[in-house]
Amino acid sequence: MIPKKLRTIRQIYAIFFFALFLVLLLLTNYADLKGFETSLFLELDPLTALAAFLTSGTFYKGLLWSLLIIVPTLFLGRFFCSWICPLGILNQFTSWLFNRRRPSEEYEINQYRPVYRLKYYLLGAFLVLALFGSLQIGLLDPIALLARSFTASVLPAANQAGADIYITQPVFHGGALIAGILVAIVLANRLMTRFFCRVLCPLGALLGLLARRAPLRIQRDVDKCIDCNKCLKSCQGGCDPHAELRLSECHVCMNCIEDCPTQALHFGLPRERSSIHLPVDLNRRRLVEGAVATAVLFPMLRSSVSANSNPSPAVIRPPGSLSEEEFLGRCIKCAACMRVCPTNVLQPALLEGGIEGLWTPILKNQLGYCEQNCVLCGQVCPTGAIRSISVEEKIGAPPFEKPVKLGTAFYDHGRCLPWAMHTECIVCEEMCPTSPKAIWYKTVDVGYRDGSTKPLKQPYVDPRLCIGCGICENKCPVEDLAAIRVSSVGETRSESNQMILER
Known about the structure:
Layout: H1 6-27, H2 36-43, H3 46-56, H4 67-76, H5 79-83, H6 86-97, H7 103-109, H8 118-131, H9 142-163, H10 175-187, H11 195-200, H12 202-210, E1 217-220, H13 255-259, E2 265-268, H14 284-303, H15 324-328, H16 336-340, E3 346-348, E4 361-363, H17 376-380, H18 391-395, E5 408-411, H19 417-420, H20 427-431, E6 439-447, E7 453-461, H21 471-475, E8 484-487
Antiparallel strand pairs: 1-2, 3-4, 5-8, 6-7
Helix pairs in contact: 1-2, 1-6, 3-8, 8-12, 8-14, 9-10
């Protein structure tokens, strides 16, 4: 017999895990354990593990944590959605906060609806894309979505309001769009309890499929049930506990057990007079049609210009990133790397690298630069899209022969102060961190309109020594468009994106 106060116990667990999610995000600013705590929830995500395996053919060791969710789900059902998932908990809280419905409306809105099938079709589409090598589950995966939203919009907004979460105020390209999507998900709970979880969540769909034969489940005694429908009042999944319960939709919130006035519901093994359970409500023809449509559209997606088909100067990836095709096959757009970046240089891409690269990390040197002794981004990446490298490997210290090269800097002589305006400036040379310096200067005698001459230092870039860190671009005194800018050409991770191909 399940205790009557299990709802309170679940709420305590839910509050704990949501608070843990926030605390672990905040710890990345103050703690030294910057790998484990940032990626913990992402590595617990079974959908991340499955999709990353389909795209890369390998199982990243950190994702073994997902077994802690998969194995209990096979026996207990979709407990993750109601007890642990931070976005699910946020949706449930806002559903309660926005609840201004009459009891009769509550009963009606918590009944099962055919629109709940949509999440299974979305899951099928994402998995088909993963099979073809395009990892797009991060667009709707609840853990990646919430981590990206908090990193790029919520926490910066809180810091702007005076919470002092960051030492320096971060800003993110596209942060307003990311915030708008989160706000839309939250406001949708006004229309339907846990709208995202019931209708759109691909992780919920995967867990529903895993839970369809769980031996421990909500059971209804048909002799004790008086068809009062009170079990619908607080149902989080819309799983019809008053009839033949749909196990794949049940969030194991246990609210129905506490609300039942006759104790007709219990959690556990079936009894002699327990009702039957309905299978997953899926139209197989629609599922096949969706998979085929995704397979047909995929070549069209790849046929558009992207950083994979045509290297873009603006797509500068973090140090340790895999080649572009492998990177896109592993990155789940979770923004964990952006969260730990100390200089705010890592930004969510918009369309710089094509539609496949939406919200993947790129360097925007106008906002920051790649700190020479920092390798945090590779430590927190949950899928290995960014390799975990050492500082020695990054800077090319022994036993490594060459540093990791992100790109190459080039001068715009029409904007450079010494070149265009005959004004003394060697900020870029002073800031260059390589040894010997990749930026050097030549002293020349410059003539002026009045006929006078003056010695002036004009800077040059040695492309063999430049590592593309971007500090020269970031510190350039020409504010709106720096006179020296980094391009992705020459990056270590690509054999073809080079200025001069070696024979």
